Amino acid sequence: MALHEIVLMGDPVLRENAEEVTVFDEELEALVRDMFETMYHADGIGLAAPQIGLSKRIIVVDLRVPEEEEPIRIAVVNPEVTWESKEAEKESEGCLSIPGLEEVVKRPISVRVEGRDPRGNALEVEADGLFARALQHEIDHVNGILFLDRVSPLKRKMLLKKWKKLRAEDEYGGERLVRILFWGTPDFAVPSLRALDDEGFEIVGVVTQPDRPAGRGRKLTPSPVKEVALQAGFPVLTPDRPRGDDFADSIRALEPDISVVVAYGHILRPEILEIPPMGSINVHASLLPELRGAAPINWAIARRHEVTGVTIMRMAEAMDAGAIIHRVEEPILPDETAGELTLRLSELGAQALVEGLALLAAGAAEEVGQEHDAATFAPKIDRETARVDWVRAAADVAAHVRAMDPVPGAWSRLDDAPVKLFRPAVWTAEELESLRAQGLPTNGGPKVARGDSPPGMVVAATADDGVVVATGEGGVSFAEVQPPGKRRMDAADWINGRGVDPGQRFD
Ligand code: NI
Description:
The protein is built from 12 helices and 24 strands.
């Protein structure tokens, strides 16, 4: 038998959806024995395999109830809660992976758990009270959830503070936390900053762009990252330009171990990148060396890629050309807009960042140079890039429109006024033809254009189909539009308001 080391919060294995066990053999039985042993040694009543660094769906529980009662000692492989009582209760919980912290957590009083025993036999348990609570806590572990995720945000914040303090003390290993200087500006960077804070890294400062005028009143508005940083009480720096001796000194004074840069918005010079002893790393929203540059998410959609992802890389002088520390792939969903994909990749990036930093801190990161010959580029999107080219095939036009949604918004001129177009759907040439054949005479006049439809021509405008526009090959309909000087609206409202008629042409 062997005791295993229990991993602590901050280790990415605790955040994974652990892997299903498929092989039931002696090795598995030995592992389960080791888990019990490790749990007893640590004086716990439950343990899940991720807590000993293994991404496997295995839990053990031993309540060690007084002798007169039936002892409760159980190992469940691939456990699942298949029923829970509506009635819940609040009780204090702790966790071997977050030693020193306890907090009240609300959970169902009774549950039914199904799974397998270590020999592979089907298993079903009904549990109440502490037994039910222990099972739920451990099943959370194999799903990447910690009990801290189940307390109120305010309590969670206080507990995390306490946790960081405890970890620095000898009793808990006297481990010095990695001191991070965080650089970031837009919403995309916020999940990364939060994740670093949540996973027990020490944020020694946050560098972000200065407040900018925004909204109708052009009021000076802090960046999304600055707002979060101020709430969390981190020191915030907002230089106009991140350079010069004074600025470098203010960075040095924070004594960072490493700089983490997530969509900061300025290029950093080598003398700034080199200040922290562990250097500087970056979260980039593509699978480098593909899509280097400012707008990787927009271009991944516009170019109709099916897969993209995030890369954690070492920052080098050349843009997005540094060594790769960690890379995670992610499919692009059909009909996904840049805004939607940005949201997903910001969460994925945060997770990958924590994993990359854990690898670096453990000295286990393999840094691999990029294949520069394979690099592609994703330049900044401007107003001219966002304009629709109707000569292209319908699927390309639709991808372009999704790639520009919500900002800056794909647009085209109608009667010399720019109209933004959103929520596209592709029509094949045949579908377009059958739509034309319907003719659709209505009281409001013809809703379908007669005759030939050159690219850009509005073929139909109906509440059901939206605005249907001919392209170089097939057509594209739009369910939402933004006419000049108006808000984004349903295409049906625009059509009803006589904003557009068949036979008009976008150019
Ligand atoms: Ni636990």
